[in-house]
Amino acid sequence: MARLREEYNKTIKKEIMKEKGYKNPMEVPTLEKIVINVGAGEAAENSAALDEIVEMVTLISGQKPLVNKAKKAISAFKVRPGMEIGVSVTLRGEKMWEFFDKLVNIALPRTKDFRGLSPNSFDGAGNYSIGIEDHTVFIEIDPNSVTKVRSLQVTIVTTAKTDEEGKKLLDKFGFPFIKDVHSS
Q1: Distances 117 to 22, 25, 180 between C-alpha atoms, Å
Q2: For the chain, how many structural domains are there in total?
Q3: Are 117 and 175 in contact (CB under 8 A)?
Q4: Looking at residue 153, which CATH number applies to its domain?
């Protein structure tokens, strides 16, 4: 069992139940899934770029990603319908917990000039999105073999109903939010 999942089941769930006054353990928010997206706009001119991105996301997530195709033509970006323009992977279960642990405790602290994440990136329903500008912060990626530094988007989907519940859940895992001295 993943380390953070075990911690959630043993201590975090009980703490949130006590703090929020929940009667049923099923009311306590939890992680539902983590979605990783990488745009591959350059794949129009360079087909090897898409293969490189697929390999990178596979290494980072431990799961083979899905190649996303354009639905509409966008002439400004030279995109036609059916063109491969990105990759995404949805992690659930053990792989999700392992990735979350790696993200919080290894990748984010390795980010250059990292000062914490904004608590304002919630979507109104307790889900949180992060943009990571440099994929080499993940330990699976060898920085010496990288041809181009790529960015990726990570969306953490929770069962929380509000942003406040979602933030409390992520805080309990030691999520590195910026500590704002001005907020209450």
Answers
A1: 28, 29, 11
A2: 1
A3: yes
A4: 3.30.1440.10
Give the E-state strand segments of 49-167 in sequence order: 66-69, 84-91, 128-132, 152-158
Contact 53, 38 (CB under 8 A): yes
Does residue 33 lie in a domain region? yes
Residue 72 amino acid letter: K
Chain position carrying tokens 């889900």: 127
3-state secondary structure of 163: helix
Beta-ladder partners of 130: 154
- Tokens 């895992």 found at: 173
Parent domain of 102 = 29-85+94-115+128-172
> For the residues of 117-145, what is the DSSP string, one character each?
B-TT-B-SSS-EEEEES-GGGSTTS-GGG
What is the per-residue pLDDT across 20-45, written as a single tens digit (0 to 9) for each?
888 988 989 999 999 999 988 777 67
Position 184 scores a pLDDT of: 45
